[in-house]
Task: structure prediction
Amino acid sequence: MSANDPKKYVVSRYDFRRLPRWPNDGIEQERQKMASGEAENFRHETTDRDHLALQELLGGYPCGEPLDAMPNDDFIMGRGFVLALPSLMQKQAAEEQGDLTSAKAHLIEAYKRKDSDVLSLLETIGCKKAVYKAVQDPRRFPNFDAILIPLFRHNLATDANVELLFGAVSRVRALLLEIGANMADPPPENSPMGAYMSQFHTERVKPAPKVCAQCGTKDGSLRKCVDCKSVCYCSKECQRKAWPVHKPDCLEIQGKLVSESVRQKADETKEAWEKEKALENERKQTEFVNEVRESLAEFKHEHPSHVETVWHNCYGRPRKAHLPLYAVEFERGIAQSMELKYEEELSLGMFPDGISEELYGRGVLLSDPANDDAKIMILHERLFDNGGDGNLRAHALDGIFVVDSVVNRKAKWKRVAEPVDYPGDYNRCSRFVAYLIRAKNLALSTASDVDLGIDNPGDPNLTMIETSAGKLLRVGNPTFI
Result:
């Protein structure tokens, strides 16, 4: 496959034979680990061609169960999961090598110097206006997907074009791999990701809206600074308040001299704003804590009939809600009341040994100080209302797991069977607590040097974004618990 093949990145996550390769792509590191013995290399007698091909690619077989003995599902820890391991390895390597800040700076600089090849490519994919707006105000830089998805749709997502726009393929390769996989295996149109990608079917990509340089308001009545025309304000009040900080930039853009006193005044004003912002953030955090407490108090005292409450996951499939919106905070509080230690929040991409049926690896890791730090893992799935339109409402409990055994300092987990003898008046909170008590009694003491199997390429947390289709899920920095 040519390095400039526009179809290079349009590869199913499960089609490991066609994955694009580059130095230090994660697969290469796995081969080195297999060769050195750092990664366990399982031996199986098999004639399964996929098993043998995967073994050749990775320099060994990474799973305790042979491929031909696994359920032939897609990604629910069966055959599909194992076939997707090389893709996950590449995804982690690409994320570690990425540099979106430099990619953004390169494109803006290329536009500023009027690079004809860059301008022509942006015009072709309908993104020229969006980038022009970002040159005027960097805060209006479009989402990278808004450039890369049209690049794919025009069959122009070559390495050469990516380097032209962003300076280096490595800076955005993680996005290329994710978009390419979604092109090869399109998400359902009624899913949040399907609706998100459908925004970029149009020929022209809209730039981010204008925002007030002082308060961040997005409003059609915004007016530019009459002197430098580089920033906008929603009102005279915002313009007056921002003037001490904007003044040095405004004068420089006009080519005028900027005195030291003007710069000093701007610095002092910025410092005062930062202190004010810190106080505001503290106030918002207090409000959030109070909201969490109210939500959890309501959850603990809800009527037993709520055990049958049904929401939907991001694919629109109904599931029973077992946990409240603030699941992590709820689990942390319950653990503290049971003298368990909260270790960390989990977002797993590849699952630990023994957990073979789960798709949503989000939850928390707890330990029991009274039992030599026995480990307990709670996994759950985020749920949404209205058939999965992206409005977060609750969590479904995917299971509670404990360390079942330790072989060669590597933990093997097992799912704790949920109690079935709940009294009729137990609500969801009471049921969860009883389930966790059973897990605590079954947890195996765990030494500090045991590999729990949770340090692996993580599935990034989901964030909510405003789109033309409404609020939707997007992979990115965590916003919700």
About this structure: Confidence is low (pLDDT under 50) at residues 456-465, 467-481. The longest strand covers residues 392-407. Residues 145 and 175 are 8 Å apart (CA to CA).
